[in-house]
Amino acid sequence: MTSLLKAAPSYCARFGVAVLLAALADFFFYGQPVGITLFLFGTTLAAAVTAIHPSALRARGLWLGLAALLVGLLPLIENVSALSVAIGPAAMVVFALWLVGRLRPGLARIAGQVALFLLGAPFRFVHDFFRWRKAARRLGQRRIRLAAIGVWIMPLTLGAVFLALFGAANPVIEYWLSLIDLHALLDLIQLPRLAFWLVVLAGVWVFLRPRLPRFLRRIAHLALPIPLGVSTKPAKAIEDIVFGKAAILRALVVFNILFAVQTALDATYLWGGIALPDGLTYAAYAHRGAYPLIVTALLAAGFVLAALRPGSATSSDPLIRRLVYVWVAQNIVLVISSILRLDLYIGIYALTYWRVAAFVWMGLVATGLALIIARIALQKSNEWLLSANLLTLSVTLYACSFINFAALIANYNVEHSFEMTGRGTKLDFWYLRSLGPSAWPALDRFLEHQAETNAASIPSYRQLARLLGQDQARYRAGQENWRAWSFRDWRLLRTLDTYIPFMVPQGSEPFAPGR
Length: 515
Description:
Layout: H1 2-29, H2 36-51, H3 62-78, H4 82-99, H5 107-138, H6 142-150, H7 153-169, H8 171-178, H9 182-187, H10 191-208, H11 214-222, H12 237-242, H13 245-271, H14 282-307, H15 318-349, H16 353-378, H17 382-400, H18 405-415, H19 418-421, H20 429-434, H21 440-452, H22 459-479, H23 487-497, E1 502-503, E2 510-511
Antiparallel strand pairs: 1-2
Helix pairs in contact: 1-2, 1-10, 2-3, 2-4, 3-4, 5-10, 5-17, 7-8, 13-15, 14-15, 14-16, 15-16, 16-17, 18-21, 21-22
């Protein structure tokens, strides 16, 4: 009973903070553009989580935790994108669990906790609400809720009476009261807005009471990495034959030969300059092999992990280990070959988001293969390998959140287009326009070049210039709202402001897409 008496104000305080945060979210986001407000809301939520746990204010390393959270939220200042929006909540989850002492050490365990926390987040608010009601009803503590409400009856009632008396005595207060439009207040209660508030309440509540649901905690316990040298099932005779030491040795010999043939073909045709068979172009050869070779490398990595399980007989055999080293090294060469293939293809058919993602993915695969060699050489566990790969992935995604890929793609395609260099493919203006504002400086340079070569006098280019000018006018109008501010948009506006308009040859219309 005493614990419930203490829990009631705790729940009420948290709910009050959640309502205030929902009101702030309404001011920041509802019907408004999203920009710097995401960072401001994240820092406010972090402050609320810290303040609602007073014991955390005296915890050692609090400032270090806050600094780590700030690093996680920094991508939201640079630019609001799917990547930065994913990094921010993940950093908030880690901070909230660490603040209450529920964060388990180890990168692999932290990643699992973040995933399980976000999986259970949509149901936490409803679960806690009904759990508290059920506990109060079971213990006969309805007077707790009545007391929590009753303490406000007298202050609010007398406050309303005093306010009415002051309104009758003071013309200024009477004027202020006359400005309150009850119909306008009722109009604010809209179903979409109510749904927005409920979603925000459920979202912030999980951070105010950071913990994993019970069934998810059991899943996390069952999903813990298996200790080094512990077998999960008894050995079977069929496994000893099909996946035994002799079978793995023969498989590695066969695989090394096959991969050596593939590497030799790449060296011969792609880098050696040998003529391809009739009807096959170098672009087709490069494109067809880029993605299947990555799948091959991933399958190879899975085979290595299965064949050289920690503590198994194969992992201690020197010959098998050497063959694995050679094979993984060939897989790394295969990935590098895939990267070079893709680079050749892009040199002919231009750059896109998917091809940039393929470059990043191939780099991660190559790093993962190198980490497999490190795991075998250093005799580390699979948990170490998983943590190392998660660290590599996290650092890569964090770095990517600060890279303006739209500008990168636009600059590359413009500089390597047929119109600019006289070779390659023609520029896909409509694709670059779909990349958004970051592509506009590159498109401005492209249209300026067309004007200098008299190509801009063609009606199609004049129409493109008008469309680009309209896009930029709408963009500038949207940036007048401070909520939409981001560091990347600020830099872009400075670039657009320094643009000097010029004239289209053989025409009277100003050709100024930057204005």
